[in-house]
Amino acid sequence: MKSRQTYSWVGRPLLDPKLHHQTYREMSVKVEGCSTELHIHVGQFVLVEGNDDENPYVAKLVELFEDGSEPRSRKRARVQWFIRFCEVPVCKQHLLGRKPAAQEIFWYDYPACDSNINAETIIGPVQVVALAPDEVIPTDLKNEKTLFVKLSWNEKKFSPLSPELFAQLEKLQEGSPRCQKSVEAKTKNIESPSCTTAERAVKRVESRHSSSKSRPAPTHPVTPRARKRLELSSSPRTPNTRISRQTSWASPDSPRRTKRKAALSEITSPSKRSQPDGLQTPSPARKAPEKTGEIQRRSCAKDDKKVSAERHMTLRPRVPALKTTVLSEERRLTPTRGGRRSSMVPSVILIPENIRKREAEEPEAQDEAVSSRHHTSRKSSLLTLNQIKQQLRFLGKSESDSEDEEFLPAAEIPDSSSEEEEDSTSPLPRTPSGASRNLRSSTKLSLQTPSKTPKKTPKPRTPHHATPRIRSRNLAAQEPASVLEEARLRLHVSAVPESLPCREQEFQDIYNFVESKLLDQTGGCMYISGVPGTGKTATVHEVIRGLQQAAQANDVPPFQYIEVNGMKLTEPHQVYVQILQKLTGQKATAIHAAELLAKRFRTQGSSQETTVLLVDELDLLWTQKQDVMYNLFDWPTHKEARLVVLTIANTMDLPERIMMNRVSSRLGLTRMSFQPYTHSQLQQILGSRLKHLRAFEDDAIQFVARKVAALSGDARRCLDICRRATDICEFSCQKPGSPGLVTVAHLLEAVDEMFSSSYITAIKNSSVLEQSFLRAILAEFRRSGLEEATFQQWLVMFLLE
Amino acid sequence: MHFQRRRLHSKSWCLFVGFQFVEMSSRKLKSNNLKHSECLSQVQRILRERFCHQSLHSNLFGVQVQYKHLIELLKRTAIYGESNSVLIIGPRGSGKTMLINHALKELMEVEEVSENVLQVHLNGLLQINDNIALKEITRQLNLENVVGDKVFGSFAENLSFLLEALKKGDRTSSCPVIFILDEFDLFAHHKNQTLLYNLFDISQSAQTPVAVVGLTCRLDILELLEKRVKSRFSHRQIHLMNSFGFPQYLKIFKEQLSLPAEFPDKLFAEKWNENVQCLSEDRSVREVLQKHFNVSKNLRSLHMLLMLALNRVTSSHPFMTAADLMEANQLCSMDSKANIVHGLSVLEICLIIAMKHLNDIYEEEPFNFQMVYNEFQKFVQRKAHSVYNFEKPVVMKAFEHLQQLELIRPMERTSVNAQREYQLMKLLLDNTQIMNALQKYPNCPTDVRQWATSSLSWL
């Protein structure tokens, strides 16, 4: 890509002393080979490379700066995002309540979204027209490149643009043609935003990968920029890869409320605020002159536009005739702009009232919106004022809600130069391409299932958020009435006991293993073996439950728990699909899921919290190449992966028997073997299940425990026998309602029923012919001394008898 | 493959035979016994229905204990939401399907259960792999309606979809599902036994309450299950063993033939039932039944016998006699191969006799056409008076005809370049079969018969 497009700054850098940044007003993009140059100004609307070639991301350029803190200085840009309707999560699209217009976009009012991008991902300028809520979106436009913004979207609801925001956007519309024109005058040929080169496509695939991979969970920790900057001042580290926690975003509150909370907390803790303030020199006293200066500048800017009819427009040009002349003039200069001009007419009319009204009400809001375009130095003063205002509002609860609504969205816009907003918008390390809008909902990402083809499917074939379930019963299930029924319920294998008796040692071992990995933030493997029914899976579940409680109490860092079962897969490679889906909610093919997972677990710091993966029935993941097992055990060895893999299988020597050396070596030596239960342990298990329930004779429990321990040591068997015995007891009891205790006799019957071979009874009950044929077979075997004979030979024997 | 064909065969065979003689009975209508014949057609309708369909009105014979066990189990799933799994094991025709159908019918009559329980019927012969089975389960649970326009995707998607659906439920709020797996042993041959593992796993965990009922005739079914699948199975087995003796068999015979009390013509019904009573006391009838009982305790074979006997009942011959039953028994125990031999030409019979001699000489070693031809030549030259000495191609043709009739079978598959004369063959007839067939063979030349019996003495 760089071979084709070169990005360079235009104009003198404005040094921002507090940031060690050099900010610029303008950037020029030169496309090699066609000698054209594209100038992009701060404040312009731009297209940014995204996941989708057809629909690149739309954003407003807020700031262009050179990130001097990096070894090789990089061109960065700060943007305010817009969101297309197709980028809104499918499950939330209905919130709009109408069909979106083809070129409608939404102000992306979600501060958690990363706004700091690589400037070289900017494709080119685009036209965005703000519409008042009561305006209709023009549909008869020839120019498809013009986009319309009418509503804002904050991941929860669509709301109309706040008036100050609207005004700000309107001003931009006026301002941009001026810049644009000068650029266009210089450049003969404008690179259209949709023009894509092969390299760009490649790059986009990469960025798509990164964006999907680095999709954070909703509870993502976010770096406050303040801290980042402090770090910067002390050491020249990259600002992009720092991650820490900002728990306010973890709460499921609405952004508005969190915002308010954050503001409040910042006011009340001046020490926290003081540091960035100290860096950002301006004093509140400077505010007033700044403001007036700003207004002057604005009028100047308007005066500059004398070339066109822009000025008339500010004077409410309702005269169509005038308008058309303007149009023609505009068209000649910039053919692509024509459509937009005409569409601007209705929108412009509304501005003055808006501005006036807003200015009267909240001058600082207007100020802020305007000043943010050029001056970052005034940020903190504005912010403090804002915060004081907010604080007052917060205290004075009598304020109307509508006022609130109006104010807050504006304050939340990431580029409204509010310090803390910007801080919260860099949640993730930048990937090389940089243009990832990270904090989108999972559904959206899963929609854009990262297939290699640039076309994205509009809808997943199987909506995985659909929740199939068995219909619920009409009548409530009866509760157990008698002691035996209660006992039967407790003896069912599915009944989850409060504690797992007899597995304390194993529990502790596994718990310690996982806990230590969590605390060290490393990864590791553990292999657990044991015959069926010895409580392997139950113990691991218990460990996870314990750890989750500990995580809630902040004793251990939070972690993500994923469970896969080899038996519940159709094919070993499906394990990737399952893991990916449980991890991120994405759907992908097995091969692709493997790639994504490998990237996720192998790249630096891509996962913030440790993942605990339980792989049940490991032996079924065996493949010829053993690549599945290899990957499962290889991921945890990467330091960044923070993956703890617990594997369960039946055979003790599985690693030696079926695994290649390189696989078993990665599995490590953390082994644990669950011994079959002994009779006393089984007795204890039964005892704990039947606590305070007098349904079994003590002898009976001991009998069954010894019997099962001698046969298999399978706790499931033990419970099943007891359950069957309660049945038999109930049957045998003559008077219903008052059955006696389950005795040894009942259990004996149950054991016989389950374990005795049925062959003898079957032979006893077969017909005379069948029996004599069996005798003939025996006789022939005795005669020949062989274990095999033909039917003819048997028949001879049969007839001889 | 052949085994599976037999399974289907045994159930559909009764139907096929049952309607052969229907026309005969209706043709001989006379005006004076019009009412009489109507009665008879009624009788035939009722009894045929009883023999062919597994009507739920018939009583259960000697399986009351098993029935009670099963119904209790199903009730507990339906009412208390307790998950269970059970296998019903018994030989073919022992009433496994009847048992479960009876139990389900009774269960559905309980009002609180009928609208609460979902049933899923699967058959190992129809759902030959897990993917098909999963689709069928989803269809029978009506889950596709829940999801709307869901299109069935891959096997993996289906599995996770269904598991997710079943996982969502819990003991008290979800509708219990009763899974009935017919020919359970065939499900155990599916890859990894995924379906069984998951069904049993659900029945052992706190998910949607399910009852898994497996029907199978394999006694060693538990050995077919993988150990982790086996561990999850509750080990409840209900054995149906046809454990009745001959007196009960006789009682069943009477019960199956007698007309119900609701029969329109009371007089006729009374007479009919009296006749049945007489039959059951008749010595020759008892002999026939004893013979039948000794061969097979299968109730289906008894139905078959009675069906054949019933078909002989006409308006001129209104009541079943001992002779009818004997005839039917003969029909039942008829050897189809011997019948084929009856239809062979003299040359073909001669060839079969030659093969028989070869078998005797070389002790069941395979033979080829040339050996048979030589043997036949020897016979024609030395002993035969009436048999014409056929040319070799003609004999070859007769030999091939025998192969077509599957009386002889090539040892290996026929290859193109192998000479047909030297292809090794095996005779599929037994010596006794050949001799019996020869006894009855119409117009068998005496020298041929002598040759057959002479064995090695003629050499």
Automatic annotation (TrEMBL), chain A:
Pfam families: AAA (PF00004), AAA_lid_10 (PF17872), BAH (PF01426)
CDD domains: BAH_Orc1p_animal
Family annotation (Gene3D superfamilies): 2.30.30.490, P-loop containing nucleotide triphosphate hydrolases
Protein purpose: Component of the origin recognition complex (ORC) that binds origins of replication. DNA-binding is ATP-dependent, however specific DNA sequences that define origins of replication have not been identified so far. ORC is required to assemble the pre-replication complex necessary to initiate DNA replication.
Organism: Equus caballus
Matches recorded under InterPro entries: AAA+_ATPase (IPR003593), AAA_lid_10 (IPR041083), ATPase_AAA_core (IPR003959), BAH_dom (IPR001025), BAH_sf (IPR043151), ORC1/CDC6 (IPR050311), P-loop_NTPase (IPR027417)
Gene Ontology biological process terms, A to Z: DNA replication
Family: Belongs to the ORC1 family.
GO (cellular component) term, any one: nucleus
Comp. bias regions, Polar residues: 232-251, 266-283, 379-390, 425-448
Name of the protein: Origin recognition complex subunit 1
Superkingdom of source: Eukaryota
Predominant subcellular localization, coarse grouping: nucleus
Cellular compartments annotated: Nucleus
Biased composition (Basic residues): 453-472
Keywords: ATP-binding, DNA replication, DNA-binding, Magnesium, Metal-binding, Nucleotide-binding, Nucleus, Phosphoprotein
Assembly mode: Component of ORC, a complex composed of at least 6 subunits: ORC1, ORC2, ORC3, ORC4, ORC5 and ORC6. ORC is regulated in a cell-cycle dependent manner. It is sequentially assembled at the exit from anaphase of mitosis and disassembled as cells enter S phase. Interacts with CDC6 and KAT7/HBO1. Interacts with LRWD1 predominantly during the G1 phase and with less affinity during mitosis, when phosphorylated.
GO function terms (MF aspect): ATP binding; ATP hydrolysis activity; chromatin binding; DNA binding; metal ion binding
Stretches for region Disordered: 177-476
BAH domain segment(s): 38-164
Biased composition (Basic and acidic residues): 200-209, 287-313
UniProtKB/TrEMBL annotation, chain B:
Any single Pfam family the record assigns to this protein: ORC4_C
Gene3D superfamilies: P-loop containing nucleotide triphosphate hydrolases
Keywords for this protein: ATP-binding, DNA replication, DNA-binding, Nucleotide-binding, Nucleus
Gene Ontology CC terms: cytoplasm; nucleus; origin recognition complex
Residue span, AAA+ ATPase domain: 82-239
UniProt-recorded Gene Ontology molecular function terms: ATP binding; ATP hydrolysis activity; DNA binding
Keyword Iron-sulfur: no
GO biological process: DNA replication
Record localization: Nucleus
Domain of life the protein comes from: Eukaryota
Coiled coil: none
Biological role: Component of the origin recognition complex (ORC) that binds origins of replication.
Description of how the protein assembles with itself and partners: Component of ORC, a complex composed of at least 6 subunits: ORC1, ORC2, ORC3, ORC4, ORC5 and ORC6. ORC is regulated in a cell-cycle dependent manner. It is sequentially assembled at the exit from anaphase of mitosis and disassembled as cells enter S phase. Interacts with DBF4. Interacts with POLQ.
Family affiliation: Belongs to the ORC4 family.
Protein name (database record): Origin recognition complex subunit 4
Species: Equus caballus (Horse)
Gene name in the database record: ORC4
